[in-house]
């Protein structure tokens, strides 16, 4: 999850000014491929229906936050050249904060049998109707160990988490195990005054042993490290986890390696994370399936807490990153990105995804934040949770307009 992060953004937003005539009420005013008027006659406003169609509607029925969509200059290819497209299914991480404090009883399984949302139905819908093929399953470290640092996986808690993992695997998708602890346990940094690397490795050794025979499991060693005194020491902690996972028998699955600054895609190279993590290897000395884990939001402070989006991140983050990845022969997966269900986010997210797809040799894909226990957009500004009515699922604007590889998919009747 994206907490408060204040970065200096060197944004250069190119505004597309329209000099065309105004569209009439109920006339088209935008959408991909639309070359006609993009402003509406007085008394009406341009409202996004989906990425391909915006329409002038009487302004009295439109919330003030809805702005005219600017036609993306890069044609969205909807992620269909990317290897992985999916969404986070949050809930087991609830109760965790950026200090790595995780309240064990705050963990809320996103499964109906545990009085959560219908995460199983969500994943079935996303795979069947939207073409998603990966889900990230955040979980608090303390929940897995029932608050005993360095201890054994708690059988009762692990069984609940495994219910979500198996539900994910049952869809045929890939599933990321994400320890959502910000490189910390109760405020103390792993390998830098807090839990030892051996204690961190112990948890991963146990998890890897459990899932060693599941090729579709990805091991996300840590969510959003930040404010690390030493990035070199952090790379050693990551190395300990990688060695433990491989030695536990998970020899070929993808392991996701996160840098500092909340796994920022923008700062991955410049803050030293990338250079330090290049040193991390498999026990055989290779870097096969060691994939860098990067996050990026599109709002004004990269916090993932604001409704509106202000950037497609291409110039500031993705372009420099893909250049560096190619130079170093490496790849990255964007495991958190998202925005509000508004026109600005449709515009910029479509552009970001198009750029990622154009660079799918080094960007493996993206995982949105977030579905799971967050509920619909009326309850959480960055919700990507579909609304279920009976057996019919309806996606959010951002998912249906941009993030779903099956273009135009909006609802389906798959899953329960
Ligand atoms: C932990 O979570 C439970 C359940 O949400 C809550 O009742 C309790 O107050 C929380 N404890 C702390 C210390 O925040
Ligand atoms: C990589 O490892 C080498 C030695 O193994 C070390 O000298 C170097 O400082 C490391 N690089 C980074 C960026 O940590």
UniProtKB/TrEMBL annotation:
PROSITE patterns: CBM1_2 (PS51164), GLYCOSYL_HYDROL_F5 (PS00659). One of its GO terms (molecular function) is cellulose binding. InterPro entries: CBD, CBD_sf, GH, Glyco_hydro_5, Glyco_hydro_5_CS. It catalyses: Endohydrolysis of (1->4)-beta-D-glucosidic linkages in cellulose, lichenin and cereal beta-D-glucans. SUPFAM superfamilies: (Trans)glycosidases, Cellulose-binding domain. GO terms for cellular component: extracellular region. Residues 1-21 form the signal peptide. Keywords: Carbohydrate metabolism, Cellulose degradation, Glycosidase, Hydrolase, Polysaccharide degradation, Signal. Its EC number is 3.2.1.4. Residues 21-57 form the CBM1 domain. One of its GO terms (biological process) is cellulose catabolic process. It holds the Pfam family CBM_1. The keyword Signal applies. Belongs to the glycosyl hydrolase 5 (cellulase A) family. This is cellulase.
